[in-house]
Amino acid sequence: MPVVLTVSTVNVNGMRAAAKKGFVEWLATSEADVVLCQEVRAEESQLPEEVVAPDGWHARHASCEVKGRNGVSVYSRADPEEVRVGFGEAEFENSGRYLEVHLPGLVVASLYLPSGDVGTPRQEEKERFMAAFLPYLAELRAKAEAAGAEVLVGGDWNIAHAEVDLKNWRTNRKNSGFLPEEREWLGRVYAEAGYVDVQRKLDPEGPGPYTWWSYRGKAFDNDAGWRIDLQVATPGLADRAVSATVERAATYAERWSDHAPLTVTYQD
Description:
- The record marks 158 as: Transition state stabilizer.
- Residues 9-259 form the Endonuclease/exonuclease/phosphatase domain.
- The record marks 229 as: Important for catalytic activity.
- Mg(2+) binds at residues 11, 39, 156, 158, 258-259.
- By secondary structure, the chain is an alpha+beta fold.
- The mean pLDDT is 97.
- It is built from seven helices and twelve strands.
- It is globular.
- It has a single domain (4-267), classed as Deoxyribonuclease I, Chain A.
């Protein structure tokens, strides 16, 4: 691993639209070594060349078999040694929700965990995903540790872990994304699988900083958001984190997604 490593993760909320509104310019000026994108919602053939294969980047994309949904990407300065789509669960292999690349000393993955909706099949899908993904995370950490490598899973986890992770927590206690069982599951990612919420390690108190704001009403202007975009890392890498920044747009009009990039710098 490099002495200094910078990683950004962002849900682009549709790459074709984001590319027209500012993503391409943001990527071109990014000093990150790795950029993780979620909710691309397009196949490679539908994306402009500056998104599919931008200068200076090795790009990997995993689209969803259902057109117009999901989709994750990984951009890295170094050429990956290995690429994996999915995490071994048949239902989600071609769902465009998980893409993993292996770099020297580092396994880094882009995750788009299902958003869910209480009382619907979408919530049941989210629960199945979580049930299958937790043991994979534990297995991934064990394998990486045996190989002397670290793991970083960045992306849209679609769960606010604690009250400080969303502005209006009282009115969302029965909504997907802040359900007790979802929060308990994310706690198990940390306590049982042994991962660390990097941004929260650097800023234990909160509130926020939030990474997603609804397009409805004045959510962005009032900073009524959710902290659901995370970089979750093995302890060795988390201990190297020196800064975490949410690249929040200066104004509503300058947003190219309803999410903002979370950028973390790791340093020996």
